[in-house]
């Protein structure tokens, strides 16, 4: 019919030229693990930028919540306060008072 038969063709890369630089052909040997680690590095960079500027993303929200929780706990031990910290301080004071009463009752019952 057309007298076309299949064939294969291959190249052996000797050098790679990019942006006025010459590299060995090994730079093209990219593994799945290398791609995965570079992707994770990019996600970490995006998460840190979003965390610093206060822009919520899937990657930065868990860190934002943890940092907020740490700030509330830090405010319990310091003079610095804000409305949520006041609620936590009141809750902890009530909890400590209940534990104190429980301990006293427990001691009195044992004697």
UniProtKB/TrEMBL annotation:
Q: List the Gene Ontology MF annotations in alphabetical order.
A: large ribosomal subunit rRNA binding; structural constituent of ribosome
The GO biological-process annotations, alphabetized, read as: cytoplasmic translation; ribosomal large subunit assembly
UniProt keyword annotation of Ribonucleoprotein present:
yes
Q: Answer yes or no on keyword Manganese.
A: no
Q: Which InterPro entries match?
A: Ribosomal_protein_uL10, Ribosomal_uL10-like_sf
Query: What UniProt keywords apply to this chain's record, in alphabetical order?
Result: Ribonucleoprotein, Ribosomal protein
Cellular component GO terms, alphabetical: cytosolic large ribosomal subunit
By its UniProt entry, which Gene3D superfamilies does this protein fall under? 3.30.70.1730
Q: Which domain of life is it from?
A: Eukaryota
Q: Which family does the record assign?
A: Belongs to the universal ribosomal protein uL10 family.
Give the protein's function. Answer: Ribosomal protein P0 is the functional equivalent of E.coli protein L10.
Name listed for the protein in its UniProt record: Large ribosomal subunit protein uL10
Q: What is the species listed in this Swiss-Prot or TrEMBL entry?
A: Myodes glareolus
């Amino acid at each position: 019919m057309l007298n076309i038969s299949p064939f294969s063709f291959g190249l052996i890369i000797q050098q790679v030229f990019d942006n006025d630089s010459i590299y060995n052909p090994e730079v093209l040997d990219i593994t799945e693990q290398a791609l995965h680690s570079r992707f994770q590095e990019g996600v970490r960079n995006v998460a840190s930028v979003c965390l610093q500027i206060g822009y919520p993303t899937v990657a930065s929200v868990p860190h934002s919540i943890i940092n907020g929780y740490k700030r509330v706990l830090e405010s319990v031990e310091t003079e610095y306060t804000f409305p949520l910290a006041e609620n936590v301080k009141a809750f902890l004071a009530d909890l400590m008072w209940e534990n104190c009463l429980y301990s006293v009752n427990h001691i009195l019952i044992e004697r």
